[in-house]
Amino acid sequence: MGSTGENRLLTVLIENRQKLVDDWIEEQSALKVWQNGLIGRAELTEQCTEFVQLLSGTLNSDYSADFKTAAWDALRDFLRDIVASRLEQGFTPMAIATFVLSFKQPLFENLRRAYGEDAGALVETIWSSTALIDKLALWTTEVFQLEREAVITRQQQEMLELSTPVVQLWRGILALPLVGTLDSSRTQEVMESLLQQIVETSAQFVIIDITGVPTVDTQVAQYLLKTVAAARLMGTECIISGIRPQIAQTIIHLGLDLSSVTTKAVLADAFAVALARSNLKICPASDHG
Amino acid sequence: MDEGGLAERIPILRMGEFLLVTIQVDMHDRLAIRLQEELTQRISATRAKGVLIDITALDIVDSFIGRILGNIAQLSRVLDAQTVVVGMQPAVAITLVELGLPLPGIRTALNLERGIALLHAALGTSPPAESRHDRRGE
Fold first, then answer.
1. Is some CB atom of chain A closer than 8 A to the CB atom of B117?
2. A229 contacts B88? CB cut-off 8 A
3. ipTM, two decimals
4. Where is the STAS domain (chain B) (predicted)?
5. pLDDT for B11-46, tens place per residue?
6. CATH hierarchy code of domain A4-160
7. 3-class DSSP state for residue A6?
8. Mutation test of the interface with chain A: which of B65, B95, B110, choosing the one with the most A Cβ atoms within 10 A?
9. B39-54: buried (b, 16+ CB within 10 Å) or exposed (e) per residue?
10. What is the CATH number of the domain that holds B79?
11. pLDDT of A235-245, one tens digit each?
């Protein structure tokens, strides 16, 4: 149990539970934070009821003002779920925090009704309640931030994996179509996954297609050449295709030596070279009889 | 294992007109030099036309070992034998490239089978029947 302020708050929470929830829902309807109908009234009633229950549960147990203690676990988890679902529905952080903050008005109204006679007790109780609710609202904002960051990190990772696929064109011939801007960390990842794939598929030719790469800087060009050299050390020949005119100019301007690498204008030409060197050819189906 | 370093040696096997070296221990500098010496002697003694160095089991390569591999290739070329390094692991390849040792002039192949085919192609000799069949895709 906390101080007298929290005790009075707990009493009001328990005695006026239903009224609090009803008033709170009215308050939120008036605020129109959920006007777009993303949350049904039934769902909101459920959430509000649970919030009030958890809040009184927290105050009733070995309450401590320290938000990190175990007593707050249930309430913290509940708010985290609320934030996660609201975030998915496209609520702004303000609208999410308002869910908690809008509880003040009905709560204070009920506190006034209970302790209106005793100004001192009323002020004390309102102060501890407002501190409490602010803390919960700040927590929702923090969770919002964390959830957002987690989404961004996951998307970054997914994009990185998506954008560097190694595909097998034929037995022993791999293609690595590069799309988007290459930076050092991405190029490194590409290099490692490519070499791993060479081992797994025992490829003799790799076509690195850079049609989808808008610009190449010195570092990236160096990485590409390193990849080619490393693949050669493993016994695989690399063919680079799809070099745009601007990139070709950059490469020459930078003074990079591509003389040891076969380059072709388009992926199809590179594939033809790889087939020819593997002693294979493509012929019309009718020729096969 | 390392009893004075004398007991440790890398076996050099003869395979027709080729020599096969399979490195299955982590190479240290003395062992590498010793391999280089023994291999040179064996090439001239057996009149081998090709050398296959299998480093599939090698996880770590430093700049010294990289240079020794390059030396072996050059030495054997002088002695009229072609060298093919086979089975280099991705991590080893990355390390060598990062060290600035892309081993120019060394032939490489993914595995022993390809290495043998490569040597035959380089020497203009006919590979064994089975791999010839494989190459023509008949």
1. no
2. no
3. 0.77
4. 8-119
5. 899 988 899 999 888 778 888 889 999 999 999 999
6. 1.10.490
7. helix
8. B110
9. bbebbeeeebbbbbbb
10. 3.30.750.24
11. 999 999 999 88
